[in-house]
Amino acid sequence: MTTTAPSPVTEVTDDTFAAEVLASELPILVDFTASWCPPCRMIAPVLAEIAAEESGRLRIVSLDVDTNPVTQAAYGVMSMPTLLLFRAGAPVKVLVGARPKRRLLQELAGEF
Fold first, then answer.
1. HEC string of 10-70?
2. Which residue among 9, 28, 29, 37 is the active-site one?
3. Are 63 and 10 in contact (CB under 8 A)?
4. Is 0.90 topped by the overall pTM?
5. Which family, according to the similarity comment (predicted)?
6. How far apart are CA 52 and CA 49, in angstroms?
7. Residue 49 catalytic?
8. Active site residue 1
9. 73-89 pLDDT, tens digit each
């Protein structure tokens, strides 16, 4: 029997967003995603790799926009995937759309 390791990317909801994201001591990258979004499925393994590699320096969480409309509306997220990087409870960088791991790391360089 094989067991899979838990995903390094955890899910947050409208109810847990403040505690998980805004109160985080580490920089935190929020992936605003949807199950029907092909680019979201493309970037998910990239985010999981980065979350595992940067554990201790950066947290990555995902938020399903279909079941969490309050947070989506609060940050004006209109396209999926949208990645918002939060530091000390405030959004400091916005990236819209899927991208390869190397490009994503380049765009985040110096941010965490």
1. EECCCCCHHHHHHCCCCCEEEEEECCCCHHHHHHHHHHHHHHHHCCCCCEEEEEECCCCHH
2. 37
3. no
4. yes
5. Belongs to the thioredoxin family.
6. 5
7. no
8. no
9. 999 999 999 999 999 99
